[in-house]
Design a protein that fits this description.
The chain has six helices and four strands; from the N terminus they run ααααβαββαβ. The N and C termini lie far apart (about 170 Å). The relative contact order is 0.08. Strands 2-3-1-4 form a four-stranded antiparallel sheet, with helices on one face. A hairpin with a 6-residue loop joins strand 2 and strand 3. It folds into three domains: about 55 residues, no CATH class; about 80 residues, no CATH class; about 45 residues, no CATH class. Helices cover about 30% and strands about 10% of the residues. It is rod-shaped and about 215 Å long. The protein is an alpha+beta fold and about 250 residues long.
Length: about 250
Amino acid sequence: MGGLFAFLFLLSSTGLVFGLARPQRVPFIGDRTRKRIAKVYGLPTAVFLILAAATGEPSEPPTVQESPSLQESPALVESSPEPATTPEVSPSPELAQFQFPQSTCGDSPSNGGDTWYPVFIDGADIEAVQQSFCADAVSTVRSETGNPTVQVASFTDADRAQTFARAVEGEVGQPSSPEPEPIAEVEPSPLPPPTPRVNPDAPVRAARQGSCDCPYDVDSAGRSCGGRSAYSRPGGSSPVCYERDRQ
């Protein structure tokens, strides 16, 4: 049915075109003017076009065949690689042992004779080292090279210092020992002067006049008291007259 309407549309549209171009050559009854020809042929042309479109069978879209190369084969599917997984990186035993950051690192002094093994990170930023590893790290200069560095910690054991250096990616410097304190020279104290030997019969004082306490005193007349002195009288007073009396 759609083919018939399409054929009629073709005839009416042909008559419309020729009638507008040359009205005298188109079969028509009545006055052959372009206006009347447009009405007579134009209306059927529009009607046949609508009917042909309404009754025509819908055309199916062309079937696109897939190329054999694009079809998935079981072998291709099975051989497709699996997405690579990133292996988990576990921290080194040295880094896990110290658990950074720390407020202070290194050994505490035990006695005055310890040998210290310093750990340095040459060319490091002091603030980054303090935030990442040890808050008590200090900037200094290497004594063996004269280069600026950061001293992270010091240890009294060489193996522990090496383990710590690997954890912070540093190196162990030259060990140092404290210098022994000089022994103060003690000057010998001067010897006391020798005690002079005392004669036990020597008088303890000079002679006095008028008292006659000791035998060597003199009376008011200027004579030696001798046996008349109080020292010589039995039962009298016991004045100290000689050195032997002091012993």
